[in-house]
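Please decode residue identities from the backbone states below.
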């Protein structure tokens, strides 16, 4: 039996999450903004019809949104993440073979789904998600991940398909691939599309028919696999078990420019605290911490531009927030320059390892890592919400913190923000 994969994703996912809890938004244009309410990162079809582009700065479209009664929301990642979790629980009721590709997309294996056809299974999956979670979705079907992704794209662009496109047969691929631009194939970026169009490859069908060796010359081995996948030959496996993280980062733009060193210490400490939480959640540790800070690219002529970064090496790999905080403080002291108005900072690390396999230092005391303290910290924050307990170094007032002035309630994760029915 030929393997059949499905890619299911939420339509305008962030906006759809907002609509679930406010039915009055159903046919109204809706957009969701990035951190600090900077740019449009999600748009409904009604908002796209008004000419609002992806990444459009909000200050440029503010008057348009007011005039056209566009519903504007700050990002509500806690809500979106929980809605995504609920959707993936439904997928796992259909099959255990699920790869969560992103917050709104998942690959699932429907080869052995108990339905007369995979199209029937896809339609049932869509209706179940809509009925139980409230999110509209589209499903693409194919024998490879690339074809499933392409089928999903076709389903979105063609309302007559009622949200499901099946590219599992040679006949279906022959009918649809000539109409799909090469830029719309998963894995083909802008630079790759330019290379392909120069040699006359402008559609998915023409890319499929490209000689494999020529594809490797133009697009490396990744392109060769992509062409094979378009021909229905699986080259990219489902990642049922997420691969171990190789790096981790926490970066933010400030809601207000930072001009005081004490504020920068607070901001970096807050980011380091979040980094430590992520590392412990994934059971990983790091032996170094990279910190950067810079001014805005759009600073005025009278402002002093500045950008700097540094890496602090730790005695041994750790995910202990207190050890990471000390490293972050040393980094800020090394980078800080008085005068510039800082717009963004962040902390990053790579080459992550599992703590039990990390090289130990001969010169550190046994209590260098406060394991019990970190475990207690994580338990409290998991039970009562992130940030319930945090190091004082991360600040209290936080005037630099990301602003969400138009954020909707976190309906599904906060008891005090549950929706009310009048």
């Amino acid at each position: 039996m030929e393997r059949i994969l499905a890619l299911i994703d939420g339509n305008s996912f962030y906006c759809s999450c907002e609509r679930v809890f406010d039915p009055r938004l159903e046919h109204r244009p809706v957009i969701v903004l990035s951190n600090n309410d900077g740019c449009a990162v999600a748009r409904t079809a009604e908002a796209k019809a008004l000419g609002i582009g992806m990444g459009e700065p909000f200050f440029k479209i503010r008057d348009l949104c007011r005039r056209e009664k566009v519903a504007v929301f700050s990002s509500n990642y806690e809500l979106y993440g929980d809605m995504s979790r609920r959707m993936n629980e439904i997928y796992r009721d259909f099959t255990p073979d699920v790869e969560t590709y992103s917050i709104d997309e998942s690959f699932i294996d429907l080869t052995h789904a108990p339905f007369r056809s995979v199209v029937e299974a896809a339609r049932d999956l869509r209706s179940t998600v809509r009925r139980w979670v409230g999110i509209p979705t589209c499903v693409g079907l194919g024998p490879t991940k690339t074809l499933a992704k392409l089928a999903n794209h076709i389903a979105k662009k063609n309302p007559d398909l009622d949200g499901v496109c099946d590219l599992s047969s040679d006949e279906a691929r022959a009918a649809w691939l000539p109409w799909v631009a090469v830029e719309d194939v998963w894995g083909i970026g802008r630079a790759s599309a330019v290379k392909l169009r120069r040699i006359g490859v402008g559609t998915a069908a023409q890319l499929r028919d490209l000689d494999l060796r020529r594809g490797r010359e133009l697009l490396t081995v990744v392109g060769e696999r992509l062409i094979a996948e378009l021909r229905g030959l699986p080259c990219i496996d489902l990642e049922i078990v997420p691969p171990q993280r190789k790096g981790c980062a926490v970066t933010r733009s400030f809601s207000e420019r930072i001009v005081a060193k004490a504020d920068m210490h607070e901001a970096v400490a807050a980011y380091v605290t979040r980094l430590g939480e992520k590392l412990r959640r994934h059971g990983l540790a790091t032996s170094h911490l990279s910190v950067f800070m810079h001014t805005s690219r759009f600073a005025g002529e009278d402002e002093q531009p500045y950008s700097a970064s540094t890496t602090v090496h730790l005695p041994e790999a750790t995910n202990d927030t207190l050890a990471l905080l000390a490293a972050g403080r040393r980094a800020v002291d090394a980078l800080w320059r008085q005068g510039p108005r800082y717009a963004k900072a962040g902390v990053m690390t790579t080459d992550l390892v599992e703590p039990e396999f990390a090289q130990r230092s001969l010169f550190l005391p046994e209590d260098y890592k406060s394991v019990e303290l970190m475990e207690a910290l994580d338990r409290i924050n998991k039970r009562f919400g992130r940030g319930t307990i945090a190091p004082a170094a991360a600040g209290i007032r936080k005037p630099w913190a990301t602003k969400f002035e138009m954020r909707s309630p976190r309906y599904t994760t906060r008891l005090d923000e549950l929706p009310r029915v009048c």
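Observation: The radius of gyration is 24 Å.
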